Amino acid sequence: MHHITLICPDHSLLKESEKWLSKYGFQVSSHFSIEQAKKHHKRVESHLFLIDYEVIRQLDDFTKYAEDIPHHIVLDEKASLSVGVSAMAQGASYYLPLPTNTETLLKHVVNTLEQNDVAALAPQNTERKSVEPSVNEALPLGTPGSGIIGQCPLMQDLFSDMRKIARTNATVLIRGESGTGKELIAKALHHLSQRHNNPVVSVNCAAIPENLIESELFGHEKGAFTGATTTHEGLIQTADKGTLFLDEIGELPIEAQARLLRVLQEGEVRKVGATTTQKVDIRIVTATHRDLMGMVEEGLFREDLYYRLYVMELLLPPLRERGEDISLLAKNLVEKTCLKHNIPPYHYSKAFDKAIHQHSWPGNVRELENAIERAVILSPPEKLEAANLKLAHQERHTKKNNSNPIEQSLPTSGTTLDDYLKHFVLTHQDEFTETQIAHSLGISRKSLWERRQKLNIPKK
Ligand SMILES: Nc1ncnc2c1ncn2[C@@H]1O[C@H](COP(=O)(O)OP(=O)(O)OP(=O)(O)O)[C@@H](O)[C@H]1O
């Protein structure tokens, strides 16, 4: 965990950040003088100092302290250009006015910590690794800087579980609807863990043809089957000392399940066509949106493997249950998409936010990403228009007005998301390709295929 030290008088506006910085997962201590902070720093290493310039004004020579206050941001209630220049010349990473809004300060804190981490890791990487492979708790999960946005209680609980689980080697099953961020969470878990200096390998079991999956995962010996002209290292071997993320584990064929069980039980991998085994040390994280227990009951998934994989569970809430996170995500996506397409930043209006909240996002964050991208690209320069989100329900309304009989048969209330998806697919499959339907729903083509199976949606 990163430790931040505030140095400011009791009445300072900077004091207010103490509480919310702790809420973001930083360990914070506060001191009124540099001397006092120095003593504390000797006992507990501080990764960053936030200093109210009023404290520096009292000193005759701040440079004397530079060595003891290595990484710092200066904040000033009487901010001026000349003081800013001298603060930066004396080693401050940033000089900001007081008060500074939470988001801006947080961004600068995260930037400085990230820069320091990179600098600290570069020369000492190997030494650090061999002395003490510490858990990487630096990621302030939930903030835009961490790449995973999530301030609502459900996500905060999830992050708190992740931090605990990351300390262990326990196998983790991540569950959640399509597009909720399962892969993102699996990778964050790896980065939080002691394995973070080693590889994290992601495999989508549904995307690899069934006849290749064993050789891809476990590797094969030369001559093991027709076409095996060389020996091939499997992805499990590649992930040695790191984390293997198996997405859509429910799609793993039954023969491969037996091999995977061996990896989990014995810590050994046997290549296809090999007579000997090799030791591997991997943490396995899996994800599925399927009911694995139901698959066990149907004989499609091995029960022994199920219990091996289901040691810890992380449940990702659907986007519609994340309250204000939807706005946070949408805002962040608008900024990111503008940057990506080189479009001047848009104002995120209340009307736009309202439209975002009115939709139920069956395709979750992925659907939101796609919808925002459409809105950013299609809107005029002066205004981000909600109509350009081109959400599936808007299309439904338009169709209704056009008196489409199938659409009109949709119940107006009490429709489940599955009903909605089924009707949407049935209504559009004559005129659109699978890729276009999946895109409109904000889900992958693979997810659409899976939902067709699950909901028994016939193809045209
Ligand atoms: N909390 C979040 N903050 C920011 N971006 C997110 C968040 N959750 C998901 N995303 C983004 O949404 C997209 C979908 O996420 P991801 O692929 O991890 O979902 P998934 O649950 O694994 O999907 P699937 O079930 O279809 O494989 C990615 O681009 C990811 O970066």
Supply database-style keywords.
Rossmann fold, 460 residues, alpha/beta, five-stranded parallel β-sheet, binds adenosine-5'-triphosphate, 13% strand, Helicase, Ruva Protein, domain 3, 4 domains
SSE layout and pairings?
Elements: E1 3-7, H1 17-23, E2 27-31, H2 34-43, E3 48-52, H3 53-57, E4 72-76, H4 81-89, E5 92-97, H5 102-131, H6 153-166, E6 172-175, H7 182-192, E7 200-204, H8 210-218, E8 219-220, E9 232-233, H9 235-238, E10 243-247, H10 254-266, E11 268-269, E12 278-279, E13 283-288, H11 292-297, H12 303-309, E14 312-315, H13 325-340, H14 350-358, H15 364-378, H16 392-401, H17 405-408, H18 417-428, H19 434-441, H20 445-455
Parallel strand pairs: 1-2, 1-3, 3-4, 4-5, 6-13, 6-14, 7-10, 10-13
Antiparallel strand pairs: 8-9, 11-12
Helix pairs in contact: 13-15
Bound molecules: adenosine-5'-triphosphate (ATP).
